[in-house]
């Protein structure tokens, strides 16, 4: 694999601030940092939308966050509102119970409900991989692909089971091939971890420690 540079890493970062206590001033600072760092996007809570002065930085948000335990129609309505408020990308949390119960038909329909609500918007599906078995990860990714998702994503970063792992990223990539993106998010705090996720198959990174990570990738 070619050497991964600072620019390579920055180009796939969603610079993220999803703490529920985050203020408008902190979000404005996030945008300033994203511009300075050259990250691909910022990812914020939907209540913070619309954002001002983002320049070339893309705008992502989350729905059904962080538990995923709301009705599909609520997630769809939340996604529609977010797009009206300027979101270019939506990261939705699945109903994890459906995956644990093995009800992947219902899971596919949940994702499809959100997909139908925002047909032109890039949709990432958060499967909370650390809470799933390998078989459940595979089936959740397959359901997301059948439902028309653009990305599968490891984690919210808020679940007690943990965040991203290279094992989960590799498994997700092998399941979706090059047909979907794979976003690694949750607990990625060092340059080494970020690069390991990319080498495992991640095509997007959700990071809150973007500045420190990018400083460490200058090589």
TrEMBL record:
What the entry lists under SMART domains is as follows: DeoC (SM01133)
Name the CDD domains for this protein: DeoC
Q: Name one GO molecular function term.
A: deoxyribose-phosphate aldolase activity
GO BP of this protein: 2-deoxyribose 1-phosphate catabolic process; carbohydrate catabolic process; deoxyribonucleotide catabolic process
What Pfam families has UniProt attached to this entry?
DeoC (PF01791)
**Entries under InterPro entries matching the protein:** Aldolase_TIM, DeoC, DeoC/FbaB/LacD_aldolase, DeoC_typeI
Which residues does UniProt call coiled coil?
none
The protein's enzyme class: lyase
Q: In which pathway does it act?
A: Carbohydrate degradation; 2-deoxy-D-ribose 1-phosphate degradation; D-glyceraldehyde 3-phosphate and acetaldehyde from 2-deoxy-alpha-D-ribose 1-phosphate: step 2/2
What is the protein name given in its UniProt record? Deoxyribose-phosphate aldolase
UniProt source species: Corynebacterium heidelbergense
Phylogenetic lineage: Bacteria, Bacillati, Actinomycetota, Actinomycetes, Mycobacteriales
């Amino acid at each position: 694999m070619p050497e991964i540079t600072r620019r390579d890493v920055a180009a796939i970062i969603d610079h993220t601030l999803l703490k529920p206590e985050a203020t408008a001033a902190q979000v404005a600072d996030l945008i300033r940092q994203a511009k300075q760092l050259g990250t691909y996007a910022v990812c914020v809570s939907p209540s913070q939308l619309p954002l001002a002065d983002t320049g070339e930085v893309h705008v992502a948000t989350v729905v059904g966050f962080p538990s995923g335990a709301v009705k599909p129609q609520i997630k769809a309505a939340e996604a529609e509102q977010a797009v009206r408020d300027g979101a270019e990308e939506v990261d939705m949390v699945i109903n994890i119970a459906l995956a644990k119960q093995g009800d992947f038909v219902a899971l596919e329909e949940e994702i499809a409900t959100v997909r139908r609500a925002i047909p032109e918007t890039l949709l990432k599906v958060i499967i909370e991989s650390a809470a799933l078995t390998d078989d459940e990860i595979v089936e959740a990714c397959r359901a997301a692909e059948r439902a028309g998702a653009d990305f599968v994503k490891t984690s919210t970063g808020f679940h007690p089971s943990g965040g991203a792992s290279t094992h989960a990223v590799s498994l997700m990539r092998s399941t979706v091939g090059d047909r979907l993106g794979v976003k690694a998010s949750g607990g990625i705090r060092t340059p080494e971890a970020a690069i390991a996720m990319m080498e495992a198959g991640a095509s997007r990174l959700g990071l809150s420690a973007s500045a420190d990570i990018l400083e460490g990738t200058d090589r």
